[in-house]
């Protein structure tokens, strides 16, 4: 039986964060975000073909555990979008504190977000900023066509029992759950130097280096 390649044990925190960013980029290029399984009520788990937040978070968690071993202490965590706890992310622990990794979004959150200090970054012309307040972390996003930042997600950083998170993920297709993308077509991926997102009758693309190349196409 092969053993995980625990690269994390050989890296300092700065190098480990850089390695994590590479893993996030590689994951986006091979595992798309989409709502096909959700809309067709297909409870497919651990599919290499991606899915919504929980599908992708579970896949990436396994990837982190295989690549970095126990160094990161990675764990699944539920957070809020539009005030409802419907989103799954990953929390990791480094020397400075915890970081939030959101590979499950349909927008390119390409960097681990520190839970202990304000931060900001831009990816494919999309700006993100985050700030902790007590035990909460609030993240905002601004697309190129938007005049100001808007709420993106909020996370209560209080530790969550793994069984509770796993149960919430398993229950995500229950009709009682009003998921943000239920009944809506979404597909996002990175290809080449651009990020692509399909939203119902609209299609957008953003270049990695030139935010002025962000384009929107309407059907």
Tags for this model:
219 residues; alpha+beta; five-stranded antiparallel β-sheet; four-stranded antiparallel β-sheet; globular
What's a quick, concise take on this entry?
By secondary structure, the chain is of the alpha+beta class.
CA(first)-CA(last) distance: 51 Å
Morphology? globular
Question: Structural class per helix/strand content?
Answer: alpha+beta
User: In what range is the share of β-strand residues?
Assistant: 25-35%
Which H/E pattern describes the elements? HEHHEEEEEEEEHEEEE
The oligomeric status of these chains comes to single chain
Separate helix tally: 4
Helix amount:
10-25%
Indicate the radius of gyration in whole angstroms: 17 Å
Q: What profile does the largest beta sheet have?
A: 5 strands, antiparallel
Number of strands: 13
Average pLDDT for all residues: 85
Unreliable segments (pLDDT under 50, ≥5 consecutive)? 1-5, 208-213
What's the arrangement of strands in the largest beta sheet? 1-10-11-12-13
Topology diagram in text:
Blueprint: H1 13-30, E1 33-34, H2 36-39, H3 53-68, E2 75-81, E3 84-94, E4 97-101, E5 113-114, E6 119-123, E7 126-133, E8 136-142, E9 150-156, H4 162-170, E10 186-191, E11 194-199, E12 202-207, E13 215-218
Antiparallel strand pairs: 1-10, 2-3, 3-4, 4-5, 6-7, 7-8, 8-9, 10-11, 11-12, 12-13
